Amino acid sequence: MEMDICWMIRLLQSFQGGKSMANWIDNMIGFVSPERGAKREAWRQNMEYMRSNYDAGGHSRLNANWRVTNQSAEFTDRYDRENVRARARDLERNSDMMNSVVGAFKRNVVGGGYNLQITTGNKKINEQLQAAWKKWCKKRNCDVTGTQSFMQIMRMAVERKKVDGGIMLVKRYTELGCLPFQIQAVEVDELDSSQMIAKNAGNKVVGGIEYNSYNRPIGYWIRQYSLDGFSVGEPKYLEAKDVIFYFTKKRPSQVREISDMSQTITRIRDANEFMTAVSVKERIMACFSVFIKKAIPTTGIGRGNQNSGPQHDYEGKTLAPGMIKEMNIGDEAQVINPTGQSADASQYIKQMQRLVGAGQGISYEATARDMSETNYSSARQGSIEDDMTYQEEKELLIEIMDEIYETFVISCYMAGMVDIPDFWEKKEKYMAHEWIQVPKRWIDPLKEANANKIALQTLQKTFQDICSENGRDWKKQIDSMADLEAYAKGKGIDITSFIYTDKKNDAAKSSKKDDKKKEEEVVSVGNNGNNTKRK
Predict the structure, then answer these.
(1) Are 135 and 128 in contact, with CB atoms under 8 Å apart?
(2) 157 Cβ partners below 8 Å, 6+ apart?
(3) Is the whole-model pTM more than 0.85?
(4) CA torsion 194→263→62→23, rounded to 10°?
(5) Least enclosed by CB within 10 Å: which of 220, 291, 321, 530?
């Protein structure tokens, strides 16, 4: 019989192989001969132990249910992208913790907005482009729908990237604004994933995006919708040069977006479910009810069931503060007051918020807005670490704003709003610009101001650096200071005595020290003369 089993095993191994086959064979041997099955399992485990050099790569009991495979980024994301996005949007609508994370990124990545500083080197052109940009940023000029200003579109883009994973900004050339150039925001849902045939020969379409042989986007297939949200007609093809796809790419094989909140939405939902359960429990514990215990039945046969006097009905009656009620003879009111220990939800929710913040690369204080456990130093350190996370998002956003501004400059030239004869020859020069973010308020203004003063005096920072950190143009700052001083002087006020008080005090102290030093030198000379005479 043992020879037959061995022959059967060899026969099965000749047709199939792999670990699943080996497990089936082990199970069969263990059924026929438990002793041999136990020996095979012991030797197999010893072989696995010797083979695995990493605990994380082993197949021990602790990792038995950890089943993973290596696949391309698009294959990994494709089947979960829609579901993850839908769940993230549901939490966006119903979760305060979700909105605390999204709001933290929106406040810090965009915040009060960005100021444009044009640096073409030509003052006249700078002023013309600055005035045109200010006018174009209004909602009726920059947005094809006429409902959002430029910075409002940027805030929405950051929000949609965190929740949906990305957003597309399409360049539209219309006559609806002050320039023949506007922006249209398109959600990632509108990419037609069912499109399979490429417009250009030799290209491929993946997830509604057409790529060339180098996986570079060539065009986007956009579904067409009616106003009520129903898909109508064939998808429309947009060339890649007119589409800005705003999303984070984490792997070389990634071609489309995945929600930035994918790694934390499960914890956010757990926290929501926990708080719902705690809320129900607390409401039950807060309830106060009364049951009426009747000593004499209301119906029956016999003399004992006949009550003299009026009978009171309790149906539909409720309790009210200060009420006085008359009950039937023999009836007794029994109070039901649920008791129990109140759940301490604060520590659990605080820990969940820490984990959610850590998963997004920001601190607990940034998401919970709870500064009760921080001092100035810890708050400052946490803010610095958070800024490093926000800086990655700012880098992506600034690249988008750069492309939009460059298209704006070309549109201004084509529309004749600026006169630049050598524009195409020196295009890069006339597109030169910088973005200065509107700064956040200081935590401790006195300490921050003193730190800037010391950094400026020790040449660790320049005046330009300090102005940039405060969201100002250093040239305009100097012009403003000069205008203030000239205006005050014309009114007979020495404004410098108020602004430069510390410098004057330092100069006065230095002058007093010099006078005192001279006096000491004179006294020393006089003493030497007296000594000479005495000698």
Answers:
(1) no
(2) 167, 169, 185, 246, 397, 400
(3) no
(4) 0
(5) 321
